[in-house]
């Protein structure tokens, strides 16, 4: 099969690989029709995630058709059109049985601090991902769901991570009616977080980024007020003034490990790998939320320490809430919202890139060329 | 703005728009207003039907000794089988897993070092194949010419421009240095070749 493989920092290519095999009775093999590059894939691409091995296939956002099922699979059949959440999880461990699917304890021998994620380094379990023609899907009776007939495949692929994660980010903020919500980052997750904040009754939604084309999308797609932090000497002071010196009730960090805005922090984290991630967005979140407010973190960070202003968070009496999104818990409600026309996730798709051109896709997305917001990957056989 | 800003008194800031105005402007405004009626509430919620018919899953066969965190009691019943450890990088990885817990910075720093070693082991190995690594095609840098590389940056006041200049150096410099090293080694060999 044709498959994206990692060749070292900033380098990927398409190679011929063996079609994955059933390794466990509850596995399925899915033929991928449509995938995506996620902003968090860029952390792998830039060599920031420990134990990212040359030869691995990335990709945790994909939909496709069931090609083969293991002997114990009962909920799926060969030929089913499925969407697969980015979490790999068993459905029965201490954490899964409480709904914490992204924190499953039975699928990642390499680490206890994170669950299993498709194509996301050995730190997340060492599973090959869906930027390929075929992918192994463990616990096929637990994770995947057949795509409803009425649902567009492009909407479905965005339901495997980006939309649920943004929606979850807004949920973690415990938004109350009339709250002022600030979202750092106008990438796909930030856009969906901003859009979701309105559904939860926010009175005001402000999105911060440095790329004008993404801020334009935040205005048109997410109906948000926007500020470009490059235009302000100190974005935190600006946000304080914009909220009558109070600060926001809720701030969502939808940026994560490779935040821009401070050269030194970026170089020590993204380039020298001496931090688990640049803490700029998170520190701005801590600084710009009001005392007693909530900071929600859905931006991805690596396992090393980062220079986070924890003292300010403590002294301000903040609530910090965070997790990888347990995708499947969001699906029923998000299906409703899509069906009712409240959300149209595929509106943020800007690029559709053939798998064979994956190296260009990564570069375009990483370097933010061509007004790229969300690139989908079209399988060779699709 | 009020004469005395919000936080200095007991006042509550006035809403910019009423609920009716927001509902009229934004599709679906307030449909998830009740925090108790949101999908991940409460955070821990026993009893959700997951599709699992097992208490502890059947164990996946271990085809090679699978490295694992020392914070796990055993290798998890299901695991990824991508890219088994090999070479010097593999030895470093096994050492990091065997020696240090996830709570130790050394665990992660050794793994990151192993990643760098792995990249160079793989580059060198690729030169013995019909498809050696090619930093031009593999970085996708040619998309700079096909996807508006210049106009995406020029005049845009993007914050990432202050470090993007480093990226080609980080990617390209080791290749240039390796090339110069190879040339120097060949010259030395020629110099010392018996006449």
Automatic annotation (TrEMBL), chain A:
GO terms for molecular function: oxidoreductase activity; zinc ion binding. Its cofactor is Zn(2+). Keywords: Metal-binding, Oxidoreductase, Zinc. It holds the Pfam family ADH_zinc_N. Residues 25-143 form the Alcohol dehydrogenase-like N-terminal domain. InterPro entries: ADH-like_C (IPR013149), ADH-like_N (IPR013154), ADH_Zn_CS (IPR002328), GroES-like_sf (IPR011032), NAD(P)-bd_dom_sf (IPR036291). Residues 188-259 form the Alcohol dehydrogenase-like C-terminal domain. The keyword Zinc applies. PROSITE patterns: ADH_ZINC. Belongs to the zinc-containing alcohol dehydrogenase family. This is Alcohol dehydrogenase. It comes from Paenarthrobacter aurescens (strain TC1).
Automatic annotation (TrEMBL), chain B:
Keywords: Membrane, Transmembrane, Transmembrane helix. The chain crosses the membrane at residues 165-186. It comes from the Bacteria. Residues 26-52 are annotated as: Disordered. This is Uncharacterized protein. The lineage of its organism: Bacteria, Bacillati, Actinomycetota, Actinomycetes, Micrococcales.
């Amino acid at each position: 099969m044709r498959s994206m493989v990692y060749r070292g920092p900033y380098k990927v290519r398409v190679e011929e690989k063996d079609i994955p095999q059933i390794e466990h009775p509850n596995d399925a093999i899915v033929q991928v029709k449509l995938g995506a590059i996620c902003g968090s894939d860029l952390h792998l691409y830039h060599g920031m995630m420990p134990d990212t091995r040359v030869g691995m296939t990335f990709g945790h956002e994909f939909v496709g058709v069931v090609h083969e099922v293991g002997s114990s699979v009962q909920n799926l059949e060969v030929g089913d059109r499925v969407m697969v959440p980015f979490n790999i999880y068993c459905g029965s461990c201490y954490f899964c049985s409480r709904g914490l699917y992204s924190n499953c304890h039975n699928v990642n021998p390499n680490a206890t601090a994170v669950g299993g994620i498709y194509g996301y380094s050995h730190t997340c379990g060492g599973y090959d991902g869906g930027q390929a023609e075929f992918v192994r899907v463990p616990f096929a009776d637990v994770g995947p769901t057949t795509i409803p007939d009425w649902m567009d495949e492009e909407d479905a692929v965005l339901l495997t991570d980006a939309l649920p994660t943004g929606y979850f980010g807004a949920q973690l903020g415990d938004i109350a009616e009339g709250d002022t919500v600030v979202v750092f980052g106008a990438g796909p997750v930030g856009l969906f977080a901003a859009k979701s904040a309105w559904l939860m009754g926010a009175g005001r939604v402000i999105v911060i980024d440095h790329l004008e084309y993404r801020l334009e999308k935040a205005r048109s797609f997410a109906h948000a007020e926007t500020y470009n932090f490059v235009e302000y000497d100190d974005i935190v002071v600006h946000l304080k003034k914009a909220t009558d010196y109070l600060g926001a009730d809720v701030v969502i960090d939808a940026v994560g490990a490779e935040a821009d805005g401070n050269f030194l922090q970026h170089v020590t984290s993204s380039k020298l790998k001496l931090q688990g991630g640049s803490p700029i967005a998170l520190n701005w979140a801590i600084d710009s939320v009001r005392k007693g407010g909530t900071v929600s973190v859905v931006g991805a960070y690596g396992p090393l320490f980062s220079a986070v202003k924890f003292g300010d968070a403590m002294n301000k009496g903040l609530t910090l809430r965070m997790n990888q999104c347990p995708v499947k818990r969001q699906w029923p409600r998000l299906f409703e919202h899509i069906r009712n026309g409240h959300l149209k996730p595929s509106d943020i798709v800007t690029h559709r890139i053939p798998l064979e051109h994956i190296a260009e896709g990564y570069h375009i997305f990483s370097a933010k060329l061509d007004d790229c917001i969300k690139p989908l990957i079209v399988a060779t056989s699709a | 703005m009020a004469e005395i800003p919000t936080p200095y008194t007991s006042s509550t800031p006035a809403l910019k728009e009423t609920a009716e105005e927001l509902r009229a402007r934004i599709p679906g405004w307030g449909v998830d207003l009740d925090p108790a009626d949101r999908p991940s509430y409460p955070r821990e919620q026993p009893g959700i039907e997951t599709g699992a018919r097992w208490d502890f899953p059947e164990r996946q066969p271990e085809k090679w000794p699978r490295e694992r965190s020392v914070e796990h009691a055993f290798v998890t019943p299901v695991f990824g089988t991508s890219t088994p450890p090999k070479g010097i990088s593999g030895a470093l990885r096994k050492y990091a897993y065997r020696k240090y817990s996830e709570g130790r910075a050394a665990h992660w720093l050794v793994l990151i070092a192993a990643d760098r070693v792995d990249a160079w082991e793989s580059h060198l190995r690729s030169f013995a194949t019909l498809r050696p690594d090619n930093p031009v095609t593999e970085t996708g840098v040619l998309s700079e010419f096909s996807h508006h590389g210049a106009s995406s940056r020029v005049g845009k006041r993007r914050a990432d421009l202050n470090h993007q200049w480093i990226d080609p150096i980080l990617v390209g410099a080791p290749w240039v240095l390796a090339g110069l090293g190879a040339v120097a080694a060949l010259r030395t060999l020629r110099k010392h070749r018996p006449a």
